[in-house]
Amino acid sequence: MKSHEPKMPRMEDILNLPVQDPPCAEFSAAYLKWVKVEGGRQGGDDIALIPFARVEDFVKGESSNAECPASFRIESRRKRSEGSISKPRVDGYLEYTLYWCSYGPEDYRDSESSNGDGSDVKPATGKGSRPGRRHMMRGCVCHFTVKRLYTRPLLALIIYNQRKHVDKTGAPCHGILDRGAVGTRAMYAPRISEDLRQKVMSMLYVGISLDNVIQHHMEVVQGHGGPHSRDDFLTRNDVRNMERVIRNSSHELHTDDECSIKMWVQRHQKHVFFFQDYSVSEPFVLGIQTDWQLQQILHYGNNGLIASHSTFGSKKLKYPLSTLLVFDSSQNAIPVAWIITSSFVGQYIHKWIGPLAERIRTKDPRWRLSAFLVDDPSFDISTIRILLCVWHVRRAWIRSLLKKCYNIDVQREMFKHLGWILYSSRSEHNGVGSVEEFMQVFVDQFAFMDYFKNRWLPYIELWVASMCSLPVASPEPLAAIETYHLRLKSKLFSERNANFWPRVDWLIHALTTEFHSLYWLDQYSEETGYFANFRDDSFSTNAWNQALQIPDANVILDEQNLQLAKVISQADGTLAYTIWNPGSEFSLCDCPWSGLGNVCKHVVKLAMVCKNRQVARPLLAAQVYRQALLSLLQNPPDDPLVLEHAILHATRLQQDIKGLEELSNSGLLQPLPPEVNSQTAVNLQLFSRLQ
Question: Domain of life, per the record (predicted)?
């Protein structure tokens, strides 16, 4: 009688197996459907196919086994280059990695209990005594192999050779099922987790002492009822080891900066989402994102905003730095990725935006972006809903005016005219004509005009064209971006670092250690209330957040004179600050903070009030929008048939705009139809799908 049992697939059939990609951030073997193969070297082993990009998520998931917490180390690794094999096997590999449970394969339980009698016993694998890990060796034979397939490099074949955490006799050798491990660390994972390591390292980088770290950790453990995992057994020795790592670390891995960068990239592969070395035809591009930054973009970027802070340090650093920012619940900007490039970042965005989007979607396929704020009109990403952010232009112009023009009234008028230059393409005025008019009216301001001609005139046409085709972000995010800019400047451009500015490896090291830890501490303190005294108060809040604390009653609007408004000080009720051109992106305030060229809380508050009440001068974008509607209203078509169609279109447009507002408020507004080249569209399609 023939058996009706399903026939086991042979190794030749593995490419016909389904590729499994669980939707959770980390997953274990329990999330996968395993298949046993017939014949071949892996005969009888369990196999499964997953995306190669998710191998690390699988390893983390397997390490979180509730019954047998473990960590899997790389026991051996081999690599091949593409094209090295003419006829590869179906399971041939580009990369071969053997992962083994850290509680094996050697077994020192008997030798340790015999008071040193077994000290001469050699490990089974012949790799020596594994210094520092002898006490952990309990003979565990749990291990699996990962092959990055030669013929399908985007896929990984997992071959689970032994799924149970047992010794060679088949008995549990660690975890809660091992009676001999009860009451010892062998009940838990052998090492502290990467999350705890990052937490402690960040504390040490911001100056929290070893004693405070240990005391805080003990309070946390007591708070959740005692030790439940290896992390709860953090010792002073663990923290000392991390202190030693920090003390001995250096940005200069090699005397040659280029070699040092390559060495850093090789050692920190999981933090690099894109790397392209400099060549004659291609620029240098390095994209960095730590695990913590990835968590922040997944949390705050989903159905939210991402802003670009580009070309920082173009005058002092070897290569300028660009940052992607998200905004937390307190309206603070958090850096979620750094891009260092030798060219204008906007010109080569199609190279790194795709890998970054894929990295995010690999963790959460449902992640969606609401809008992208750009401060560089050369960004070619029109498949995403774009908002043009004028903070960089605004800051550069006002700071130059403050330095080069000493008449306050003239400063205000020039600043207002500069704003109208950008919006000239949306009105009846010609952009070139607006520039010429500006330069004629203020021809006596020689210092500023020289600066404007040399620095901005060559690019003004590009900015005007972008203002014509893109919506403009409101002043609120400008304040958060500006606070990030000031913090970055204060940390990197301290004079004690001047000798390191020409080296890119120093910039990488500074960003990923101390500067990264500052933002980690901000979020940790915000969430838990711990270490508030270690936070830098000057950057803990920004004008956007501060504006939300100002009562509407403190705002004074004179409807007979909408050229200015006042905001009463919260600290001193007898003091009122004056804001000129209120509600505009180019507003000016007479408070000390605005006097330094910054976006102050009074300007942001006025923008909020103007938007809500619609009683003062609206944003320049809204003013131009109204002018366009009035122009249509004042010039109706003469043809009755055309007029009838125009009325129908106007009615539908009113309904459509109301619907767009509702979608935008819920973060579900669809992007405009893409009109870009195919290469950019392919790279950006993951970012552009909005729900």
Answer: Eukaryota
φ, ψ (nearest 5 deg) of residue 424: -65, -30
Can you tell me the distance from the alpha carbon of 313 to that of 504, in angstroms, rounded to the nearest whole number? 12
Other C-beta atoms lying within 10 Å of the C-beta of residue 632: 12
Supply the angle between the helices 291-300 and 194-205 in degrees, to the nearest 10.
Answer: 100
Question: pLDDT of 198-230, one tens digit each?
Answer: 999 999 999 999 999 999 999 999 888 887 777
SS3 334: strand
Torsion of CA 651, 655, 657, 663, to 10 degrees: -170
Q: Which residues pair with 308 in a beta bridge?
A: 324
Question: Are residues 33 and 20 in contact, defined by beta-carbon separation less than 8 angstroms?
Answer: yes
Picking from 691, 637, 642, 641, the residue whose alpha carbon sits closest to that of residue 669 is 691
Q: What are phi and psi of 386, to 5 degrees?
A: -105, 140
| Tokens encoding 229 | 């995992």
Structure tokens at 369: 């972006």
Residue 600, CB-side half-sphere exposure with 13 Å CA sphere:
22
Residue-wise pLDDT for 84-140, tens only, equals 877 778 788 899 999 999 888 888 877 655 444 444 444 444 444 444 456 678 889
Sign of CA dihedral 463, 466, 467, 473: negative
Instruction: Classify residue 685 by burial, with Cβ atoms within 10 Å: 0-12, 13-18, 19+.
Output: middle
- CA within 13 Å, CB half, 55: 23
- Rounded to an integer, what distance in angstroms lies between the CA atom of residue 248 and that of residue 265? 19
Report DSSP state, residue 307. E
d(CA 137, CA 132): 10
> What does 366-394 look like in DSSP terms, one character per residue?
T--EEEEEES-TT---TTS-EEE--HHHH
Beta bridge partners of 159: 47, 145
Secondary element (H or E) of residue 79: strand 72-79
Q: What's the helix, strand, coil split of the chain in %, to 5?
A: 45, 15, 40
Q: How far apart are CA 382 and CA 611, in angstroms?
A: 27
Q: Radius of gyration over alpha carbons of the chain, in Å?
A: 30
CA gap 155, 73 in Å, rounded: 21
Using the 8-state DSSP alphabet, how is residue 145 labeled? E
Using a pLDDT cut of 90, give the percent of the chain over it.
Answer: 35
Instruction: From 118, 159, 128, select the one nearest 17 (Cα to Cα).
Output: 159
* Residues constituting the chain: 691
Measured between alpha carbons, how far is residue 505 from residues 337, 508, 510, 516 in Å? 16, 5, 9, 15
Ramachandran bin of 662, using left for φ above 0, alpha for ψ from -120 to 50, beta for the remaining angles = alpha
Output the six-digit token pair for 602.
């009074």
CA angle centred on 352, ends 323 and 505, rounded to 5°: 60
Question: Which pLDDT belongs to residue 274?
Answer: 94
Q: Do 579 and 606 touch, CB atoms closer than 8 A?
A: yes
Determine the Cα–Cα distance for residues 171 and 190; give it in Å rounded to an integer: 19
